[in-house]
Amino acid sequence: MEHNLKELIGENWFNILNSDERKCFEEKFSISNSKRKSQEILPYEDENSGIYYALKITPFDKVKVLIIGQDPYPNKEDAHGLAFSKKSGKIPASLKNIFAKIKEETGVNNTSGNLTPWAKQGVLLLNRALTFSKEESLATRNKFWQPVIDIIIEKLISREKPLVIMLWGNPANDIPQFSFDLEEEYKKHNVFILRSSHPSNMGNAKNSELKEGKIKAFTAADNFSKTNIILKSLNEQEINWQT
Question: What Rg do the C-alpha atoms of the chain give, in angstroms?
Fold first, then answer.
């Protein structure tokens, strides 16, 4: 291994993984890193970017909110390992819609697409595929990373600490660990699931209800104010959605 797993994911996450789980994380990273010899694998590894960057800057015991994304942005200028977040520059459509909803709900006006300030407050911005490669389909990358994502989700929902989970769009809402019939049991353990359509403009997704109306449109879901209401009720510090 060219990289030390404890440095990649942070000591806090490293300590709650057993030896088999650590091996899984190490193998997935090693395979992805070796592919860099023949193809561009995003995000790059540096001080403010990386495959496991979301874990590194949001320690396990600090996670209060989990937002599930799809995969990193497809260019090195934007991808840095946080779901929906980009390093700098023009704000993409989905993030514009997220920011518009935040302003409507909380009054916060965001101009930076770098969501690191959220991550440092305990918002784990987790993509289901932790890498992007033009040579591989999203389905292939999702399958490759699923064991790692499953471990992360299992650790979070079983730790007996307050957690708000935001699921946007069908792929996120269809994750087996977050099925509708588990919601009430999770609430007993202070784990709350907020569902909506995806904030993208694709097919007017942000205004579409899902699952025959069981899931609200993103524009009507009030994810951000509800998250803070839940956190406050559990005596947790609310999230400042300013970037």
Answer: 17
> Is residue 70 a part of any domain in this protein?
yes
* Structural domain boundaries enclosing 78: 5-233
Confidence of residue 2 (pLDDT cuts 50, 70, 90): low
**How do residues 117-172 score in pLDDT, each as one tens digit?**
999 999 999 999 999 999 999 999 999 999 999 999 999 999 989 999 999 999 99
> Global pTM?
0.97
DSSP string, 104-117: HHH---------HH
Total number of domains constituting the chain: 1
What residue type is 220 in one-letter code?
A: A
Catalytic residue list contains 46: no
- Kindly state whether residue 240 falls inside one of the protein's structural domains: no
CA distances from 228 to 123, 163, 174 (A): 12, 11, 24
> Active-site residue among 20, 61, 71, 174?
71
d(CA 132, CA 42): 5
CATH number, residue 222: 3.40.470.10
